[in-house]
Amino acid sequence: MTWLLTLAFDGTEYCGFQVQPNGRSVAAAFQDGLEAVIGCRPDIKGCSRTDAGVHALGFALSFEAELAIPPQKLPLALNTKLPRDIRVLKARQVPDGFHARYAAHTKTYLYRIHNSPIDSPFEERYYCRMPGRLDEEKMARAAAHFVGRHDFLALCAAHSSAAAHGDTVRTITRCDVSRRGDTVEITVTADGYLYNMVRILAGTLCEVGAGRLEPDAVPRILASRDRRQAGPTLPAKGLFLHHVDYGKEAEG
Questions:
Q1: Other C-beta atoms within 10 Å of 17: how many?
Q2: Sign of CA dihedral 156, 157, 160, 164
Q3: Pick from 144, 153, 112, 155: which is nearest to 130 by CA?
Q4: Rounded to whole angstroms, how far apart are CA atoms 93 and 70?
Q5: Interatomic CA distance for residues 125 and 13, integer angstroms
Q6: What are the pLDDT digits (tens) for 135-162?
Q7: Which partner from 62, 87, 205, 208 sits 20 to 30 angstroms from 252, CA to CA?
Q8: Which stretches does DSSP call E strand in the chain?
Q9: Residues in CB range of 32: below 8 A, 6 or more apart
Q10: Measuring CA to CA, how many Å separate 202 from each of 42, 57, 97, 187, 221?
Q11: Which domains does the chain show, CATH number per domain?
Q12: What is the β-pairing status of strands 2-9 and 169-180?
C-alpha cells in the first residue's frame, strides 16, 4: 500500500524537511511519530527538501506500508505522536510506485511580507518585515514578466547543483502579488524551482515595490543570467510551501 499524506508545519525550529546531520529535520520528527503509530519506520519521500526555517501549509509526502488504519483515522493517530508544530491534515492511498516528488505537476509557494515599521507580536516568525511602503501594483506588473518558460539562473543561489549542471530552465505558470492591509503576499506556481529561487524572486519584486527597480527590468535580469542583477534573498521565515498539484497521478 502506498500512502500520500498532506502536512502543515512551522519550520522555525527545523533545519528543513530533509534529514540532515546538522540539525533536527521535519522528516526525522515525522518518522518518529510514524514509527510510534505503526511500529516500523518506512522510507518517506517528500515533495520538496525545503530550507531551514521554511514553513508549509500543504506539504506532501508518500511512503509504503501495509496499514489496517482507515485513511480518515491515520491523521488523528499520527497527530497524537507528532510535535505540536507538525500536523497531518489528510491521508489517502495512491497507486503503487507513486513518488511525492517526481509525480508532482506543479508546486505553489507563498511569500508573506509585513509591510509596516512595527512587528506583530503574534506573527513575527511567519513573515519578512519591510518597513517602507511597497507599491504592490508595480510589483504585480513585474511579477507578470516571470510567467513563462525561462532560464532562471539569475534567481539561483550560488553553488546550486542545478546551476552546475546547466539545468536552470523552469516554467512559472502563476506569479501574483496582492495586498491585504499591511500584508503583501507573493504567490508563485511552477513545475520546479532552483535553490532559493522564490526568495530571490520575492526580493527582486520588493526592489521594484521600493522603487529601486522598474517593473520592466525583469526581462533584462533574466536574460543576464547574473545573480548580481536580481534582488536580495529574503529570509526563509516568510516562505510557505502552499500546495502541490498531482493532477490525475494521485488517483487510485
A1: 28
A2: positive
A3: 112
A4: 10
A5: 11
A6: 999 999 999 999 999 999 999 988 777 7
A7: 87
A8: 2-9, 44-46, 55-64, 86-94, 106-114, 128-129, 148-151, 169-180, 183-190, 239-245
A9: 81
A10: 36, 18, 35, 9, 14
A11: 2-103 (3.30.70.580), 106-242 (3.30.70.660)
A12: unpaired
* Active site residues per annotation: 51
Handedness of CA 180, 59, 73, 78 (dihedral sign): negative
**Joined grid coordinates for residue 42:** 518506512
User: ∠ CA(148), CA(152), CA(155), 5° rounding?
Assistant: 125
- Sequential DSSP letters for 101-156: TTT-SEEEEEEEEE-SSS--TTTGGGSEE--SPP-HHHHHHHHHTT-EEEE-GGGS
- Going from the C-alpha of 184 to that of each of 65, 117, 179, 180, 242, the distances in angstroms are 42, 14, 4, 6, 15
Rounded Cα distance, 144 and 162, in Å: 24
Residue 146: exposure state from Cβ atoms within 10 A (0-12, 13-18, ≥19): buried
Dump pLDDT digits (tens) for 181-230.
999 999 999 999 999 999 999 999 999 999 999 999 999 999 999 999 99
